[in-house]
Amino acid sequence: MILSALLTSVGINLGLCFLFFTLYSVLRKQPGNADVYAPRLVAEGKLEPRINFNLERLLPSAGWVSSSWHPTEEELLSRAGLDGVVFMRVIIFSLKVFAFAGVVGLCALLPINFMGNQIVIDFSDFTNKSLESFSISNVNDGSKKLWVHFGAVYAFTAFVCYLLYLEYRYISLKRLAYYYSSEPKPDQFTVLVRGIPKSSAESLSANVEKFFSEYYPSLYLSHYMVYHTTKIQKLISEADKVSRRLAYLKSTQKTSQRYGRVGFLGLFRPKIDLVEYYEKKLEELEDNARTQQSLLSGKEVPAAFVSFKSRLGAAVVLHVQQGENPTEWLTERAPQPEDVYWPFFSASFISRWIGNVMVIFACVILTILFFIPVIIVQGLTNLDQLETWFPFLKGILNIAFISQVITGYLPSLILKMFLYLVPPVMIMLSSIQGYVANSQIEKSACNKMLWFTIWNIFFANVLSGSVLYRVNIFLEPKEVPNILAVAVPGQATFFVTYVVTNGWTSTASELLRLMPLVSNFVGRIFFTKADEKFELPSLPYSSEIPSILLFGLLGITYFFLSPLILPFLLVYYCLAYIIYRHQLLNVYSPKFETGGTFWPIVHNSMVFSLILMHMIAVGIFGLKKLPLASSLTIPLPIITLLFNSYCRKRFLPVFKGYPAECMIKKDRSNESMSDFHERLATAYQDPALKPIHFSRRTDSHNAPLLASET
Amino acid sequence: MILSALLTSVGINLGLCFLFFTLYSVLRKQPGNADVYAPRLVAEGKLEPRINFNLERLLPSAGWVSSSWHPTEEELLSRAGLDGVVFMRVIIFSLKVFAFAGVVGLCALLPINFMGNQIVIDFSDFTNKSLESFSISNVNDGSKKLWVHFGAVYAFTAFVCYLLYLEYRYISLKRLAYYYSSEPKPDQFTVLVRGIPKSSAESLSANVEKFFSEYYPSLYLSHYMVYHTTKIQKLISEADKVSRRLAYLKSTQKTSQRYGRVGFLGLFRPKIDLVEYYEKKLEELEDNARTQQSLLSGKEVPAAFVSFKSRLGAAVVLHVQQGENPTEWLTERAPQPEDVYWPFFSASFISRWIGNVMVIFACVILTILFFIPVIIVQGLTNLDQLETWFPFLKGILNIAFISQVITGYLPSLILKMFLYLVPPVMIMLSSIQGYVANSQIEKSACNKMLWFTIWNIFFANVLSGSVLYRVNIFLEPKEVPNILAVAVPGQATFFVTYVVTNGWTSTASELLRLMPLVSNFVGRIFFTKADEKFELPSLPYSSEIPSILLFGLLGITYFFLSPLILPFLLVYYCLAYIIYRHQLLNVYSPKFETGGTFWPIVHNSMVFSLILMHMIAVGIFGLKKLPLASSLTIPLPIITLLFNSYCRKRFLPVFKGYPAECMIKKDRSNESMSDFHERLATAYQDPALKPIHFSRRTDSHNAPLLASET
């Protein structure tokens, strides 16, 4: 690709970014959009109503930037939880890494690359100059200047490892500090017990009671049995729908809507009073659900939330094998009550097992199917091929601007569109895998998404562009560095446009929240508010973290190959810093708190990126006829892996649980526990088993929610 | 190989066995050999002195067989510990497996093999008939009779898995029962704590005291700090030698020995009174060691044995991460006091790390070096090649008997000689790897030895005999079944002779205890008793279990290929049953008790053997042009692996620790704990730090042992 195509792409995306910023700064001031741009403030009742119309409302402004810049990390912690802080630390970490890389890359490596003359180019026209001349490919074979690249690889690895260590330590300390400062929480005192053995004489619930009060008389507090509630869940969701419909009907003034035909063959039935009909139906459903609730005793799932009087007590039961038969009385960490994924418990063991197998297959199929858009994208970057396939396009493609748009902008756009579809699929896949908590599903989906992205965006593009898409190259470990060294530098320019399109514009559109904006607009015009549930959005970690990490991977691998990517990345991270901070403070509300356990995923991904860079370096120095540098690079991945194994020992255990020291200190701190113990006994409850009462009012905003006070 | 060579080998070994049995039954009656053949009874003082000479002493008898047959498993448990029982269960398990295999193999498979005519042979001379005609190679290609083999593979796998399940359950129940019935033991209440953090103000010992009495005030009992004692150990072992020498000098009557020259240049020094000299030297060494003992405070190792008041207390500390920094306050299961491998603690972290790396290299080098004897052995089985290499041997080799001895007996004998050298090397390697207990070293050496044996005896012989010794075939997983199917049946006869030589004769020589017998004999004639330490021998699990398991592997893989091996194996297991039982009751005394944790190694090895058999079956059915049977065998290894993973979940956790249920029940049983707690406080003590006092008497058998009563 030539420089002008890159500039076209940068131009388009810069324009889009400014458009989005301007639109946002105007739209956010419209009171109707408060639900979209400040749902947290709305929910917290902090937003002052601004009904008076004035000119200011129509002028773009940048006040939101400073308002999201100012809050300290403590404020962020209190508003977005530790997960939000960790998310921001990922961006800050990347900024630090690429600031260093940028200085080294632009001041030392770029001039050396540019001064080489391996690639013969036409110097007369600068804008048509191939971007290749800025990459390591342009350095002469066997040149002594490559030792600068070699030094840069070592220095960069040392710097990244140092930062990784500091960051891991910082976050693990934050995690402990967060634990120390937290209020007593039900999940700290509770253990999820599975595999409760059946006895003919007693119910499972009595069995749990007996076991724990016999063996832990001084520690055991209470337990909450889990039941099969699929039926009740269905009845309640149906009743919920009917109650919404009813509320809508009552709120409308037109009598024409109050009367209608119902049922499958409604056309042949007489018209009836719909309000009366739905009220009757709602009552029936409620009665039905209540009857089901009272018939639960035989539907026990062999799982229970068992609560203990102290944190250490729960930890003891969690860590020591309980029953003589290791397949019974299995214990695992209880999630927070609001984080429990209840449908999981109703699924049978077999359905979960089949689900697991299916998920593996689905991931494989998804990866294969995703190769189709990748081929299309790579076809677009090679225009000549496109012309031979579709000769009628020749005329259009010869227009300079259009061909630049097609090679520079379109490929990344298409890839981005397809990538939008993947995260919901991954979450769905993770949810049928048998996790007991939403946070676990999110984390598992994050991992899946990360490897999917790295494989399908990085490797698929790299390998399809030069060599064929061959999985089997990874079966010949010796060849991998050489193949990567040939393939990776060739895709540098594609990834620069990818950063611009997917990094800049996606982040800017994250600010604009286009989808919620449109659905809110449509909702306001065509439906009444009551017909829709108002739910606070939460940051979709499983799609955002992998995309940030992919940019990290691109930056790390291309740092010494083609430093031109670094300024674009830095701009991306600056944008991301300010925009995600703003969204975390104003838009997203944390649905769960994992205590920063997303960080180990980030750490692993960074170490993987470093080792990938080392492998490419080994290959590149070999290709460039500097075998000594190539062999001297080999210790680097080994040192990095040793560093990683040290970090795993030093920090990872803290992310898997809390040390006894903390738990005992926390248990001894003066807290009024009696109140809390009372609340603890009722903290875990299947939403399907809460008292059923659907409001029939029409005036409230939150009308159709379950009323749990009754 | 032809039948007559096999018969020669069987004949030689049968003769040897009978010779050994006869010798044993005579020698055991000689009072001078009591230390060799009944050291346990001697140590326990149960052996009646039999000084009167009578003719019966010179006649062979078989009374020992019935006396070792009669005791029940409970008696065996009380005398040999659970490890001894598990060891016997391995043999019983193998007997059951190969009794079933023998019935199926000899009644169904052998006739089918023999009736085939794939291999053209001369029927006129039965003794010269190739043994190949009894193997699956003789069945005609594509014959429907191969479905019998197919069915046998399925039935055998099902039978073995069923037995494995029963046995795993039996032993895990035994283990729990053993725990329930055991006296309170120090290791149940103690945890080894490592990584004790240094503080400038206090010693490590004070640090331990503070930490555990602060966080576990109601559970903490006492602790024993570990010190660097390399110097003291050296002084004590030197003093030990001097004291032995002294005792010997005092016991001899010859005055000529009392005077002599000492030192490196002794020849030029005047003669002195040696008794006086050594007494002086011993005193010096003792004083020196005592001074060193009093100077220990600065030589603390950051490790301590911390004892708790209850078993559950120790388990809590063991399983829950203690310190905020996961590299500090590391806890691990404490070994029994007599099982602790003290030298380990004096080794620095770096020396242990280097040791670990060295062990990996040493294992690789040993494996490569061991290939030399394997090549020699395989050369001997191909006589023609030997003749071309050494033409002068032609005359000798043409004598029928000699050539039969060379092909039938010599190869296994040579292999056996080399194999004798390996177990001590493996134990030495394991001991520098950083295990804290002798039992852990033994278990690790057992694992190393097992894989070494399987690789170097089974695979090296199989692959060098037909294809070249190529490690890289395992890089093409699809080819493995075919290569094995070609190579394995060809080595059937070699392994039959291997069973006869290494199985029968080795086991019989185990009864005779040739090496201890000779050293005892030499010792009695040339040295006085006092010059030697009398140590009770213990069963060398690390060399015996792998050899039993190798025969299991041979039996399982050759069961359907060449059922002729099965009767030989059955004889071997019968011999092993009676001989090892006898040795466990009379000779070996358990040095440690692992609670049956050798069983998981046995289980894994059996599952591996089954899967190896399945792979060979897949290959063989393919070669024999029965592709349907080949494909239908593929689910078998998958089912076996699923079975294995179930067993791992169901039983393995019990072998890694004890469940809370057991510990709490045991803690509550009425035991007089105050006495035990007192003993517990002094249970762990570095032998180098015990009070030093060397006896100067000459009359006692145990004279030079450390006197710990002072």
Automatic annotation (TrEMBL), chains A, B:
Main location: membrane
Compartmental location: Membrane
Domain CSC1/OSCA1-like cytosolic: 188-343
Claim: Nucleus is one of the keywords in the record: no
Record's bilayer topology term: Multi-pass membrane protein
Family according to the record: Belongs to the CSC1 (TC 1.A.17) family.
Protein's recorded name: Calcium-dependent channel, 7TM region phosphate
Organism: Helianthus annuus (Common sunflower)
